[in-house]
Amino acid sequence: LQERLGSIFEGLTKRGALSEKDVSEAMREVRRALLEADVALPVARDFIKKVTERAVGQEVLRSVTPGQQVIKIVHDEMVAMLAGGGEEGAPAPSSDDAADDAAGIDLAAVAPVPVMMVGLQGSGKTTSTAKVAIRLRDKAKRKVLMASLDVRRPAAQEQLKVLGEQAGIDTLPIVAGQDPVAIARRAMEAGRLGGYDVVMLDTAGRLAVDEALMAEMAEIKSAANPHEILLVADSLTGQDAVNTADLFNKRVGLTGIVLTRADGDGRGGAALSMRAVTGKPIKLLGTGEKLDEMEVFRAERVAGRILGMGDVVSLVEKAAETLDAEQAEKMAAKMKKGQFDLDDLAEQLKQMAKMGGMSGVMSLMPGMGKAKKQLDAAGMDDGVLKRQAAIISSMTKTERRNPKLLNASRKKRIAAGSGTQVQEVNRVLKMHRQMADVFKMMGKKGGRKGMAALMN
Ligand code: GDP
Ligand code: MG
Fold first, then answer.
1. Please, what are the domains in the chain?
2. Is the CB of 261 under 6 A from ligand 1?
3. Choosing a second label site near 113 at 20 to 30 A (CA), which of 71, 135, 245, 376?
């Protein structure tokens, strides 16, 4: 997506506010990316509308391209939608450690807190029940009892018992011939008597949502009065998972969603659709068959996956934080005229240091990993930036304006003054000459070619 957006904005060197035309062209690409990521059409449409409203008229930061700026807006809106209430400006849920420990599961109720897992057959309910139980025990330090209410599938209760034995989590003893509601009551009773903090209720599924399943879930719900009802949904089933979530939510009422098989889903679109359609948070991601393969849902990570971009977003964020717009504007005017003296270079070095140095900047740019390694190997670390700045500040004002004055004896003086070697002074001067040339070119031919020259 980022490449496509980049090409849309190629040649667009003008700065200022994003126009409606800029944005609507970019949104065509965003829309395609969303649909490719398996985001439901109405959700994609709604999303595009919100982003367009936010983007049109927004000032482009001096240090980023309009394409990068649009990506940032798209990304922020997506994170807000995945994390918040889906409403504009809704605050993202806090991600403090305590909340992380319980994996976003609300345990603020009288113990034993009933947590009910619902979903279609094969979605990963039983596995996820055990995974969540382990998390609650290990991270939130809760005593957990698990019970299988699945009397439909042969050996379903056995399956949970085996997982419990593997993980060292207690399971409710199996009693033949009981119906799910009776098992739920017995589980809650055992939870009370055994001093458990949490009782996890694993339920039966069907191949598709039907009335019998919904009726059974509703009965269990009224018997156990669960504090959390988590839908377990297979992210690989895409649009079906979204419909399932909608039906379960309307009929049984959900408090959250666990998305399984995130390990096989490179697209992540189901998460956005489910969030938008149900309004319920995605709390956890299943990332494999093993019992420790579960992660707390992170909106930023999934947004990145849906948009298929590198870390342009954090680059833009850093640029916004550190670059003083006025300073950048002056620089841009100088570049146009082909003026770039050593004071300007010093300013550039300062900005670069603020952004974490050359390697910091590079590691944020997609596809620059290799270049970064070379830089590190060449010793272009932050210490170098500091020494280069020291060299420039050891020059006189006149020297900085006119580097041609720097003969051998002046260079020696500067090296001594900055505690460096003449070689290093020469390197700074060479870098300055190269950059001045590039900026001259950028001023004449526009940014792209200038950048290309810089890379060669
Ligand atoms: P249930 O019918 O909903 O209880 O589903 P199960 O918990 O029995 O899981 C069905 C299959 O999916 C099992 O083979 C699990 O190992 C597998 N499974 C569950 N969660 C995940 C996951 O997050 N990733 C992967 N790759 N497989 C999973
Ligand atoms: Mg099961």
1. 2-92 (1.20.120.140), 97-307 (3.40.50.300), 323-455 (1.10.260.30)
2. yes
3. 245
